[in-house]
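CATEGORY: protein folding

GOAL: derive structure tokens
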Amino acid sequence: MASCPEAYSPHATSKALNRYIEDYREFCAERGENPEKPYSGKFLIRIGPELHKNLAIQARKNSTSLNAWVTEALSKAVKDSPLH
């Protein structure tokens, strides 16, 4: 924390972080941009019951959870896409 001497206690750290966040928001506003927001890592999708069933079967066949199986499938799709 040598570069941020005011952040030696949790309260001071929080105060400094809030100041930096506000500076970032002002910077974005000056540029006419929206601040980048972190993603939570969760999203809800709606699929048909048959696809849901088939995904669950595939996950079970691979001895993994549905979440892990879908995460792997999506990761592969992104990796293989021309945008990556």
